[in-house]
């Protein structure tokens, strides 16, 4: 089912408010809804909420035979099917345009940006490697599910710890978490995705982290993924709105400062969660 | 008051019994004659209420999905023009139809000109589980608009169905509180949509945020909290 487009009064009101730099939830145009991260009892289970948008990410690992062309590399697969639970406009088995965009962006931001060191997932060259599965569950859609999913995904990977393995000759021993403390994944950098919405009226300022209504009424969306070290990973622009080069640059500069704040927030919440966990090392 | 779950028998008995939302009477054939239990069962989970003399019974619960019921006023979005009338999205499982002649002063020659995307305030005139819901924008007896019709400008807020019922309750604090601060126009639909209008954009935003904050499905703020919250808003 195609999402019903917003009514004329809603459209006119949102444009009028945005012209005065007012947003419906009282945010500044370049203000992010502050993310809430909730960790499950298992490592690698995270629920991320941006306002009313909610996504659960879960990581699990199992041992597999590596691909013959890459015998030293582990695998990371991302499963992100949007179920009708998120909103009645999504259907199972028939991915909408938005769902395809989210899936492809997740692949670019989390997998192809080389955030995870794949070689460290190798156990026995050509024989055994770790296969990480990142599963995302979209619980509710109140706009900007992409940023929420990217954030949930990367935090879940940072939160996850795999069991320790020992290799003696050709013998592989997996130590259960009660025996030896599980080890965190080797993560090169933590990319975050930020989405900006642009509106048909050129004098209207772009807004960060659009709500569902703003997203529907926008003339174009631009998503940038970068890390706290100012390294740009992905830039994606959707919709036909033309942007000048300076505009794109200024958006990226804003994203740089926002990502630093986001990185600090994520590190804090991970540290806080880790403090509450008892890890026994015998 | 007691809590009921779907399928539970309800001890409703009265010579002139009226059943409200969430209750149905099973036909006599389907209840086994051996059990002398009442044939009234609940169809949804919620709290069971009845009037003082026990003649009216209903189940109250909160939901977000609207199921049309006759005589309820709703806010819809025109999605399509269909011959003589319009297709209107009222948030239910099926689109409703609104006849072009169901307006005050409408005739074959002079039909209302609603664009696709317009908001209408209408009453559900027909709601049957096997048929598409039908709307009307006038009182069928007097043929007067009685406040129904197109809603121009303003803004539409979405909230839970329980919040809509609260807003329609004359004893609820929110609308009088907001009305004392700013002049506003409101049309409350029973389908989880509230149309609001005021002179200034920031006032409309403040009203919409207050409705969302008072929603039991969201923050569920009480009167004191709303007053404080309203003080922090630029209104």
Please provide a brief summary of the model.
Chain A contains five helices and 14 strands.
Helix and strand topology:
The complex is a heterodimer of chains A (about 280) and B (about 240).
Chain A: H1 8-19, E1 36-39, E2 45-50, E3 53-64, E4 75-79, H2 97-112, E5 122-124, E6 128-140, H3 145-159, E7 161-162, E8 165-168, E9 171-174, E10 183-184, E11 192-198, E12 207-208, H4 212-217, E13 220-226, E14 232-238, H5 245-275
Parallel strand pairs in A: 4-6
Antiparallel strand pairs in A: 1-2, 2-3, 3-6, 5-6, 7-10, 8-9, 11-12, 11-13, 13-14
Chain B: E1 2-4, E2 18-19, E3 23-25, E4 40-42, E5 46-50, E6 56-60, E7 73-82, E8 85-89, E9 96-98, E10 119-128, E11 131-136, E12 149-151, E13 155-158, H1 161-168, H2 174-181, E14 184-188, E15 193-198, H3 201-214, H4 223-232
Parallel strand pairs in B: 2-6, 9-11
Antiparallel strand pairs in B: 1-5, 3-4, 5-6, 7-8, 7-10, 8-9, 10-11, 10-12, 13-15, 14-15
Distance between the termini of chain A: 56 Å
- Main β-sheet description of chain A: 6 strands, mixed
From the N-terminal CA to the C-terminal CA of chain B, the straight-line distance is 39 Å
Count interface residues per chain for the largest interface: A-B, 18 and 21 residues
Q: Can you say what the CATH homologous superfamily of the largest domain in chain B is?
A: Nucleic acid-binding proteins
User: What is the chains' assembly state?
Assistant: heterodimer
Strand tally of chain A? 14
Family (chain B): Belongs to the RRP40 family.
Domain Exosome complex exonuclease Rrp40 N-terminal (chain B): 17-65
InterPro entries (chain B): Exosome_RNA_bind1/RRP40/RRP4 (IPR026699), KH_dom_type_1 (IPR004088), KH_dom_type_1_sf (IPR036612), NA-bd_OB-fold (IPR012340), RRP40_KH-I (IPR049469), Rrp40_N_euk (IPR041054), Rrp40_S1 (IPR037319)
GO molecular function, one term (chain B): exonuclease activity
């Amino acid at each position: 089912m195609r999402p019903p487009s917003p009514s004329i009064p809603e459209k006119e009101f949102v444009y009028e408010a945005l012209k005065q730099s007012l947003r419906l939830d009282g945010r500044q145009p370049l203000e992010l809804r502050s993310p809430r991260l909730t960790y499950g009892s298992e490592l690698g289970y995270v629920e991320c909420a941006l306002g009313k948008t909610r996504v659960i990410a879960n990581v699990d690992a199992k041992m597999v035979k590596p691909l013959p062309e890459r015998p030293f590399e582990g695998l990371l697969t991302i499963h992100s099917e949007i179920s009708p639970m998120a909103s009645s406009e999504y259907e199972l088995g028939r991915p909408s345009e938005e769902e395809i965009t989210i899936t492809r962006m997740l692949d670019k931001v989390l997998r192809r940006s080389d955030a995870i060191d794949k070689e460290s997932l190798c156990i026995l060259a050509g024989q055994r490697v770790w296969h990480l599965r990142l599963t995302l569950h979209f619980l509710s859609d109140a706009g900007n599910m992409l940023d929420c999913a990217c954030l949930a995904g990367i935090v879940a990977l940072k939160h996850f710890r795999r069991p320790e393995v020992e290799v003696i000759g050709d013998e592989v021993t997996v130590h259960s978490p009660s025996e030896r403390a599980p080890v965190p994944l080797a993560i090169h950098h933590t990319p975050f995705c930020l989405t900006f919405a642009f509106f048909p009226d050129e004098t209207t300022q772009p807004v960060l982290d659009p709500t569902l209504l703003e997203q529907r009424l926008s003339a174009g969306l631009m998503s940038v993924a970068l890390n706290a070290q100012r390294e740009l990973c992905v830039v994606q622009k959707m919709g036909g709105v033309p942007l000048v080069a300076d505009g794109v640059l200024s958006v990226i500069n804003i994203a740089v400062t926002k990502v630093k704040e986001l990185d600090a927030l994520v590190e804090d919440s991970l540290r806080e969660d880790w403090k509450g966990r008892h890890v026994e090392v015998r | 008051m007691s809590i009921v779950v779907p399928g539970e028998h309800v001890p409703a008995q009265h010579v002139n019994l009226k059943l409200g939302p969430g209750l149905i009477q099973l036909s006599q054939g389907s209840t086994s004659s051996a059990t002398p239990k009442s044939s009234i069962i609940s169809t949804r989970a919620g709290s069971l209420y009845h009037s003082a003399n026990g003649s009216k019974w209903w189940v109250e619960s909160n939901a977000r999905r609207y199921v049309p019921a006759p005589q309820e006023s709703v806010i819809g979005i025109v999605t399509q023009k269909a011959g003589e009338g319009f297709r209107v999205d009222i948030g239910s499982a099926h689109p409703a139809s609104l006849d072009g002649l169901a307006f005050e002063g409408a005739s074959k020659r002079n039909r209302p000109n609603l664009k696709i995307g317009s908001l209408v305030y209408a009453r559900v005139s027909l709601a049957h589980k096997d048929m598409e819901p039908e709307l009307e924008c006038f009182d069928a007896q007097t043929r007067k608009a009685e406040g129904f019709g197109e809603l121009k400008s303003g803004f539409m807020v979405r909230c839970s169905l329980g919040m809509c019922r609260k807003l329609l309750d004359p004893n609820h604090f929110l609308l009088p509180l907001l009305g004392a601060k700013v002049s506003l126009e409101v049309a409350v639909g029973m389908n989880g949509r509230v149309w609001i209008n005021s002179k200034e954009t920031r006032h409309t935003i403040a009203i919409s945020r207050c409705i969302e904050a008072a929603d039991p499905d969201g923050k569920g703020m009480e009167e004191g909290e709303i007053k404080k919250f309203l003080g922090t808003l630029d209104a």
